């Protein structure tokens, strides 16, 4: 299934609270918060590939790139490539947006 690339600033929907929420798009940068399952998978991956990387702990936040969006709403789950502290990445699949471990979040925009 092919996905259309759109301008994320334009592709927004109205939330019941009256706030506009962005619909995730392929190529957008987000933050991913590691959970225990991700930690185990990263350790397994590193052992198998004989890769050394920086330490990872549940709750740590790493930058990620959206590689697939599984829906067309602001709360659509996404698959991510998570950039770890080292030469490796972690593939997080069907991740929802949230604030707890195992979820992704939008970077906070700082006004200048």
Annotation keywords:
112 residues; 7 strands; disordered N terminus; alpha+beta
Count every helix, treating DSSP H or I runs of 4 or more residues as helices: 1
Radius of gyration: 15 Å
Strand order within the widest beta sheet: 6-5-4-3-7
Oligomeric state of shown chains: single chain
Order of helices and strands: EEEHEEEE
Per DSSP E runs of 2 or more residues, the count of β-strands stands at 7
Fraction in helix: 10-25%
Q: Structural class of the helix and strand makeup? A: alpha+beta
- Average pLDDT figure: 86
Give the end-to-end Cα distance, rounded to a whole number of Å: 39 Å
- Any idea what the shape is? globular
Largest sheet: 5 strands, antiparallel
Low-confidence stretches: 1-19
Beta-strand content estimate: 25-35%
Number of domain modules = 1
Word description of this protein:
The chain has one helix spanning 36-49, and strands at 12-14, 20-22, 29-33, 61-69, 78-83, 89-95, 104-105. By secondary structure, the chain is of the alpha+beta class. The protein has a five-stranded antiparallel beta sheet. It has one domain (24-105). The chain starts with 11 loop residues before the first strand and ends in a 7-residue tail after the last strand.
Short description:
The chain has one helix at residues 36-49; strands at 12-14, 20-22, 29-33, 61-69, 78-83, 89-95, 104-105.
Write the layout of secondary structure elements.
Elements (H helix, E strand, L loop, with lengths): L11 E3 L5 E3 L6 E5 L2 H14 L11 E9 L8 E6 L5 E7 L8 E2 L7
Antiparallel strand pairs: 1-2, 3-4, 3-7, 4-5, 5-6
């Amino acid at each position: 299934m092919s996905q259309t690339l759109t301008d994320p600033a334009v592709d927004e929907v109205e939330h019941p609270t009256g706030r506009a929420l962005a619909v995730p798009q392929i190529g957008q940068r987000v933050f991913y918060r590691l959970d225990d399952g991700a930690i185990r998978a990263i350790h397994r991956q590193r052992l198998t590939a004989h890769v050394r990387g920086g330490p990872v702990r549940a709750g740590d936040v790493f930058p990620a790139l959206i590689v697939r969006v599984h829906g067309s709403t602001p709360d659509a789950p996404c698959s991510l490539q998570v950039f770890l502290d080292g030469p490796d990445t972690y593939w997080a699949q069907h991740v929802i947006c949230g604030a707890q471990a195992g979820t992704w979040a939008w970077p906070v925009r700082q006004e200048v």
